[in-house]
Structures are given as structure tokens and as C-alpha cells.
């Protein structure tokens, strides 16, 4: 008991924790104590508490064709598969218009690693979206999509990212991090690249002026040491971003692997383990300001609980989420339900944009005038 209290006291003072400290945290089963310390660390970043933010965003999966073949993905279809698709331009634009119609600001476009889409396809699409919807933040394309664009075009990662930024891309999501350890990456997705590749692409994005987010997916059979290495590697990468004056990673999102409908049998992570890992991540990762809940995989009620375990943000409305849903995980919420959940947690809801700038604070009883009703 004295050992964990000493570690938590150092964390509360803002001291950097080591891997050995992290092992002490994992040895504890007192998740409420861990959560309380994580909540204190969140407050150091967010003196505006009890304001809790969210973004009205839409996922557009422009294609499901992918030649990376991750064992844990139930969404992709291999090239030439009869169920493979690439959305036409007008369908994409209509989906974005529906986002704008309900006051949304964030577009998360992701697909697979399509071997037959040229770089110009992406550049042209981003240009047209930005021209038609200048108010929308294009927060799109995973590191492996960027890598595929580089391979298909013959251009460097940096050149691809600069061209996308010039076209209107604002930021990269943290997708594809999974666990930043090569033992696990070889087990779940041999063609996805090493953890260093993921970090290198993210750090190239930081150098060209794009901010990003960082993710972590637990439940692949990784050890607690591998989870801690993931946190430490993100922390060190953020240190390097700050050293060059870059924004770096604006947010961290912890997900749980959903094994249904995939080719990777695994134990499903429960709420208690999720909350414990979330709290430890907030204590270990001392330089990424925002932590999002993971209501998509854990459900809205656990999402609400996570606001007491280090999270300051309820994430996105995620209108039309397909990748997680393909694994039979179909929690969906609309804007007014997010307002209710944040208020039930004793917080004040506020709509933000992708840069975490507050657009609107919802006072007591105030509702969203326009809402997107999800169809399951």
C-alpha cells in the first residue's frame, strides 16, 4: 500500500513515472484510488472543469478495400472482393452535408489500404471537400493509408503529407497504433508495419504542421509491460514534438478490442479493466492534454464513468461508424444524449472543434436544436 501511495503522490505532483512505477500501478486492484489520482492529473490540464467537451463529427468510410489483412478487422474486404466498394464523390458530399446540417464540424475519413487508388484521388477529394465545406475540419487518414499513398505514388511520406495539408487536410487520427510493440503487431497485423513506422509517420506529420491524436487498443493478449511501453513511447514522441515547437498529439483515446466477427479470438475487456487502464494511462502520459472516453466500444454508461478516471472529453458523436460496428459493437449516441450523459456525470457539456477550441457551452437544460437520429 505504501508503495502505490508513493507512486500516486509523485504523479499528483506532476513527476514523470517510470515503467517500474507503472508496474506498481498495475499491481493495484484499487481502481477508485487510481481513478481519483488520474482525475487530479486531468484537472492540472483543465482548470475549466467541470466543463466537458465533445465534438459533432461524422465518420465516412470512403472504401472498405484493403490489402493489409489485419486479423482483428471485420470491416475490410480484399481487392476484387464482390463486397468491396469505393464511395462516389456525390455520396461523400451528401454525408458531409448531413453533418453540417446538424452543426457538425469534424470529418473523419478512413478506408483501407486500397492498392488501386492514386494519390491524386485523395488530393482531389480533400480539395473539393474543403472548397464546398470550409467550416469542416478534415481529420482523416490513418498512418497506413498515408504509407499506401506513398507507395502507390512513389513520393516520400513527407511529400504526401505536405500535399495533403496544402489540399486542406487538418490533422491525422491516431488509428493504427493498436499496441506499439512489435511482438503484438506481428501477431495481429504482419503487414501493418512496426511500432517505429507508426511513430515516424506521426512525427513527420508533426514536422509538416499537422496535429494528430494517439490511440491504444487493449485486449490482444499483450502484457502489462507492453501496455506501459506503448504509453512511454507516445510520451517520448510527444516530447520530441514539443522540442520542435509542434502541437503534436492533441488527444489520447483508449479502445478495447472487439473480437466478434474477426479472425482473432480474444477475451473481451470489461469495464473495470478498461477504467483501470485508462487511469494508468492518464498518470503515465503526462504531456498529452486531452483524454477521450471510449463509449463506442464500452457503451455510454461506462463512457460517463470514465469522466472520473482521467477523461475530459466525451469524444465524437461518430455519426455513421462502420469499422467498430462491423465487429458487432453498435453503441450509438446523438448529440442530445451526449448532453444528458455529461450532465448526469455532474459536468457541463461544451461543443468543441478538432483543435479543442470551445464553440458552445450548453447551459443547464439547453438542448441541441438540430440532432442526427441514428438508425441501427
UniProtKB/TrEMBL annotation:
PANTHER family: FO SYNTHASE (COFH), LIPOYL SYNTHASE 2. It comes from the Bacteria. S-adenosyl-L-methionine binds at residues 72, 178. Radical SAM enzyme that catalyzes the cyclization of dehypoxanthine futalosine (DHFL) into cyclic dehypoxanthine futalosine (CDHFL), a step in the biosynthesis of menaquinone (MK, vitamin K2). Residues 52-289 form the Radical SAM core domain. It comes from Hydrogenibacillus schlegelii (Bacillus schlegelii). Pathway: Quinol/quinone metabolism; menaquinone biosynthesis. This is Cyclic dehypoxanthine futalosine synthase. Keywords: 4Fe-4S, Iron, Iron-sulfur, Menaquinone biosynthesis, Metal-binding, Oxidoreductase, S-adenosyl-L-methionine. It is an enzyme of class 1 (oxidoreductase). (3R)-3-methyl-D-ornithine binds at residues 142, 294, 316. Its EC number is 1.21.98.1. [4Fe-4S] cluster binds at residues 66, 70, 73. Coiled coil: none annotated. Belongs to the radical SAM superfamily. MqnC family. It catalyses: dehypoxanthine futalosine + S-adenosyl-L-methionine = cyclic dehypoxanthinylfutalosinate + 5'-deoxyadenosine + L-methionine + H(+). InterPro entries: Aldolase_TIM, CofH/MnqC-like_C, Cyclic_DHFL_synthase_mqnC, Elp3/MiaA/NifB-like_rSAM, F420, FO_synthase_su2, rSAM, rSAM_sf.
